[in-house]
Amino acid sequence: MGTAGKRGLITAAVTVVCGITVLAAPGTAFASPTPTPTPTSSTSSTPASPAPTSSTAPVVPPLPPNKDLEAVREKLESLYHDAAVATDAYNAAEEKAQKQSAQLVQLAKKIVEGQRRLDALKDRAGAAARQQYRSGGLPPEAHLMLSDNPGQFLDGAGRVLQGQRATKAMLDEMTRTQQDLKQYAADAAAHWRELEANRKDKEAARKKVQQQIAEAEKLESRLEKQEKERLAELERQAAQKAQTAWLDTGVLKDIQGKASEQGAKAVSYATAQMGKPYEWGAEGPSTFDCSGLTSQAWAHAGRPIPRTSQEQWRQLRHVDVKDMRPGDLVIYFDDASHVGMYIGDGTIVHAPRPGRTVTVAGAGSMPILGVVRPDA
Question: pTM to 2 decimals?
Answer without folding.
Answer: 0.60
